[in-house]
């Protein structure tokens, strides 16, 4: 188990052994913290035949769970872009039946925020009238997207971000050299940072932001920068963090930079002044909002980004 999960796991395990858990649980926290592993560990403990020592790891139920073949454990939401009403109705039907091994039934709904409104409403009845020893575990990185009525019927367990030093120490144990900046661009998630560094993406970030900051001196690189930013939505997050550092520098705020390894680039952009930086930052946030799925009519991402970059370039050229 990941070390940052242990402070959450220990009270959960104690609640299982003392039989103090409710029928509905919500495990929440940002993506990349191992919430799925925590939910699976909890499911194993709930199904364990030795409640006072759950999970024992040696009983028949624990062996079946480890093998992924426990007939009373059901997982929904691992695949697909949404969780529809049919999947929830079928889950509710299964959960209403008697446990085959006689020690309760557990359902894990991963990425619970992907439930449609109809699916969420269908789940409400199961939470209100749980059958026997049935337990529903919802896992979500975006709990604000869940119905408030659904959340109110669940015990909530937050998986917090580990502190920076603990996260960096863990990453070092995995054999990668991580910087606070790499952790920042991955919102403090150790697992996402590990994947990011293993893929060599940090070099791309440093190169792309260097070219962005240099647009005032090398305007011919505009199309190359645009192509780099369009590769992945997260690349615009890199730019956002750089602008935030530049604004902080321009305002003279003495606080650690999000991207300390791009200090010279943020210092260069800071010369634009707080007002220009604020306007550019606000425009970037609006651009990111418009490019998100489900935000009304589709927009031409290339055109929108080109206009924003041209605005940045012209501001740099005349600074």
TrEMBL record:
SUPFAM superfamilies: P-loop containing nucleoside triphosphate hydrolases (SSF52540)
Reactions that this protein is recorded to catalyse: DNA(n) + a 2'-deoxyribonucleoside 5'-triphosphate = DNA(n+1) + diphosphate
EC assignment: 2.7.7.7
Source superkingdom: Bacteria
Keywords: DNA replication, DNA-directed DNA polymerase, Nucleotidyltransferase, Transferase
UniProt cross-references to InterPro entries, sorted A to Z: DNA_pol_HolB, DNA_pol_III_delta_C, DNA_Rep/Repair_Clamp_Loader, P-loop_NTPase
Domain DNA polymerase III delta subunit C-terminal: residue ranges: 203-313
Molecular function, one GO term: DNA-directed DNA polymerase activity
Family annotation (Gene3D superfamilies): P-loop containing nucleotide triphosphate hydrolases
Pfam (any one): DNA_pol3_delta2
NCBIfam families hit by this protein: holB
The protein's name in its UniProt record: DNA polymerase III subunit delta'
The species this protein was found in: Oceanimonas smirnovii
Gene field: holB
């Amino acid at each position: 188990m990941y070390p940052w999960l242990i402070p959450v796991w220990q009270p959960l395990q104690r609640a299982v052994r003392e039989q103090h858990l409710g029928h509905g649980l919500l495990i929440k926290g940002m993506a990349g913290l191992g919430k799925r592993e925590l939910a699976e560990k909890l499911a194993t403990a709930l199904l364990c035949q030795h409640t006072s020592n759950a999970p024992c790891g040696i009983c028949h139920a624990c062996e079946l769970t480890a093998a992924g073949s426990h007939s009373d454990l059901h997982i929904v939401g691992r695949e697909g872009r949404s969780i529809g009403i049919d999947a929830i109705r079928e889950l509710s039907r299964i959960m209403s039946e008697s446990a085959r091994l006689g020690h309760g039934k557990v359902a894990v709904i991963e990425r619970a925020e992907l439930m449609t409104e109809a699916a969420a409403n269908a789940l409400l009845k199961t939470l209100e009238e749980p059958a026997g020893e049935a337990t529903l575990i919802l896992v979500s990185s975006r709990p604000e997207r869940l119905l408030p009525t659904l959340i109110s019927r669940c015990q909530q367990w937050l998986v917090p971000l580990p502190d920076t030093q603990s996260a960096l120490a863990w990453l070092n144990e995995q054999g990668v050299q991580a910087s606070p900046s790499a952790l920042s661009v991955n919102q403090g998630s150790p697992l996402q940072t590990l994947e990011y560094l293993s893929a060599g993406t940090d070099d791309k970030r440093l190169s792309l932001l260097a070219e962005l900051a240099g647009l005032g001196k090398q305007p011919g690189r505009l199309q190359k920068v645009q192509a780099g930013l369009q590769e992945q939505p997260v690349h615009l997050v890199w730019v956002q963090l750089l602008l935030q550092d530049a604004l902080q520098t321009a305002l003279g705020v003495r606080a650690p930079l999000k991207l300390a390894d791009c200090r010279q680039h943020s210092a260069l952009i800071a010369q634009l002044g707080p007002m220009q930086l604020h306007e550019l930052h606000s425009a970037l946030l609006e651009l990111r909002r418009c490019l998100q799925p489900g935000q009304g009519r589709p927009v031409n991402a290339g055109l929108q980004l080109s206009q924003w970059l041209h605005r940045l370039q012209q501001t740099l050229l005349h600074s």
